[in-house]
Amino acid sequence: MTIESLVRPELNGLERPISPSARDIDRLTREVMAHLAESDEQFGALPGRTLIRDLKPVVRICLGWLIDCVNGHVPPTSTDRLAIAAAGCTRAGIPVDTVLHAVHEGCKVGLDLIFARTGPTDVVGVVTGTARVLELSKLVTATVSKAYVLEHKAVAAEHHTAAHSLTSALLAGRLDSAAARECGVPIAEEYSVLAVAIPAHPDESHPQLDGQVVARRKLRRLQAALAAIFGGQALSLLSVDGGTILVPSTVRTDTDLDDLVQRMSAATQVPLTVAVVTARPDEVPTTARHAHELLDTVQQLELQPGVYRFTELALQYQLTRPGIGRDALATRLTPLDEHPGLLETLQIYIDTGLSRTRAARQLCVHPNTVDYRLRRIAQLTGFDPAEPSGLWYLRSALVARKGHTASGPTSRQ
To answer: Among 7, 271, 288, 411, which is least packed, fewest CB within 10 Å?
Structure first.
């Protein structure tokens, strides 16, 4: 961006030009900074070193341009110096509205200087000077705002890269203290390792929308929610369909993690399925693998979205692990393959809490039909659903069968 548009050679300066010397600009800058520090709370709250080191250069540059414009001189043709100074304010943590307020106060000083040096007949000088100050104010506002946006993007990219490196290091079994310092997230004493499954958003299949764009927006909403919910302390490696999140134990408890996942689901606009396992930093790689295996079990069993832990699904997890025992257990239901109605009845009977009445209602049959089918299951499999031991085997076989179907039979050497 240039400021060539501010040059108006045909409209000259004031009756008494303002001195453009470095000494006078420095004096004027000190007066403006002193006025800001004394009269405005947001400046008074800033450390003196910050005012001098970061904000003062912005004010000085703007006052120098201001004097040049008011005197009718050609100002510099580039705003690079101001952009660099504004970026320094960004890194110092000075809010952009504070910087812009300082600039606008400087413009007020410029208008005071104009009116102090004009007489009753100097209408052209007043109009010209005021127009230039206003135009310069617009240019400076745009330059500072753009510098803030670019610097924030750069800082965010650096933080994301450092956080990504730290997350990758933890998942690989390395404790990278340097990456932790760069992203400002210390390595925690304990993590909740979240294996996350993100379903497709309904709009991803909308014929008039770009599904990839919708999916990326879904992921960005989740990442924004993570930053807001966990205060930037959570680490994540995520894609549009899921991934891993590491939440320090200091920013969550087991009791509120379920609610936090609900908030993440609300922000993402899709129901998340999450498997949670707790680990020390050196245990993260193994724990992350176990968490994703537990998530696989949840998906194999076609459970509802939500938060799951090993304390709830230890038996189901073990039954779905590859091995000879799982395969043998799954094959006990093979006689029912030619009778899909019997297999469906068994699953619904178990899902409805062993209630023949509720099962019959869901199957749209008479309860006596449910009884008949349960007897046929006992005849074909050798396990009676009416007996505790038979029911245990059949229920376990259903779980093992889903794991067997999802991963295939165990290979034998």
So the answer is: 411
214 close to 201: Cβ distance less than 8 angstroms? yes
pTM: 0.58
Q: CA 226 to CA 204: how far, in whole Å? A: 22
pLDDT of residue 4: 42
Q: Cα angle vertex 219, ends 216, 224, to 5°?
A: 125
Question: Measured between alpha carbons, how far is 320 from 300 in angstroms, rounded to an integer?
Answer: 9
Angle at which helix 340-351 crosses helix 367-381, to 10 degrees, equals 110
What φ, ψ does residue 78 adopt, rounded to 5°?
A: -135, 145
CB atoms within 10 A of CB 54: 22
Spatial contact of 135 and 71, defined as CB atoms under 8 Å apart: no
- The label of the residue with tokens 């993590």 reads 191
Same domain as 333, residue 309: no
Q: Are residues 382 and 269 in the same domain?
A: no
pLDDT score of 294: 92
Domain of 330, in residue numbers: 324-407
Rounded Cα distance, 185 and 177, in Å: 10
Q: At 131, phi and psi to the nearest 5? A: -60, -40
Whether 175 is in a domain gets the answer: no
Under 8 Å between Cβ of 260 and 252: yes
Q: How far apart are the first and last CA of the chain?
A: 70
Q: Per-residue confidence at 49, pLDDT binned at 50, 70, 90?
A: low
Q: What would the mean pLDDT of 69-84 be, rounded to a whole number?
A: 73
134 within domain boundaries: yes
